[in-house]
Amino acid sequence: MNYATIKYYDIANGTGVRTSLFVSGCTHGCKGCFNEVAWPFDYGDPFTPEIEQQILDSMKADYIAGLSLLGGEPFEPQNQRGLIGLLRRMHEEYPEKTVWCYTGYTYETDLVDPAGAAHCEVTDEMLSYIDVLVDGEFILEKKDITLQFRGSSNQRILHLTDREA
Ligand code: SF4
Predict the structure, then answer these.
(1) Measured between alpha carbons, how far is 18 from 58 in angstroms, rounded to an integer?
(2) CA 35 to ligand 1 centroid distance, Å
(3) Domain map of the chain by residue range?
(4) 84 Cβ partners below 8 Å, 6+ apart?
(5) What homologous superfamily is domain 2-159 in, according to CATH?
(6) pLDDT (tens digit, 9 = 90+) per residue, 9-44?
(7) Which of 35, 134, 139, 149 to mutate to test the pocket of ligand 1 (most atoms within 8 A of CB)?
(8) Given the CA of residue 36, which atom of ligand 1 is nearest to it?
(9) 9, 13, 117, 140: most buried, per Cβ within 10 A?
(10) What count of Cα atoms within 13 Å lies in the side-chain half-sphere of residue 93?
């Protein structure tokens, strides 16, 4: 897996101050995408063990609320396989911190359903580590800049755990 960028001390992509990882690769092709440069899977830099460790180290401060995953598309199956190790370690080492994830896929039909477009062997486990999932493609005609944490009104903020409800 490659990643496009990492934003430390990010306050725009989830509650509180977070570390945000933008992975490379997305097949949705939304018109008006905010990050079109990250569509190719080979964009950016390799997500190495050192980068993973840097992200985990950034969680140490008490004021860091947690990790946010964006893209690109974190739920492209090859990106799920690239992220699952980081999520396992987040869960083990920082159980008090939360994980937000942004996806262009739809939770019920594409991710939870075993026949869903992005369901693979690690999807259920990956979902188990996510507290808040912002789902749905970005639809330019439904763009609304007044929405917090969403780009268009069709997208949903799903609380998969009660930790940020
Ligand atoms: S899912 Fe996100 S990254 Fe992918 S094309 Fe749509 S807005 Fe862009």
Answers:
(1) 9
(2) 7
(3) 2-159
(4) 122, 125, 126
(5) Aldolase class I (3.20.20.70)
(6) 999 999 999 999 999 999 999 999 999 999 999 999
(7) 35
(8) 8
(9) 13
(10) 17
3-state class (DSSP) for residue 97: coil
How is residue 37 written in tokens? 């440069």
Amino acid identity at 152: S
The DSSP secondary-structure symbol of 156 reads: E
Interatomic CA distance for residues 48 and 98, integer angstroms: 22
Give the tokens for residue 151: 């780009």
pTM over 0.70: yes
Instruction: Determine which residue's CA is closest to atom 3 belonging to ligand 1.
Output: 72
Structure tokens at 140: 């330019």
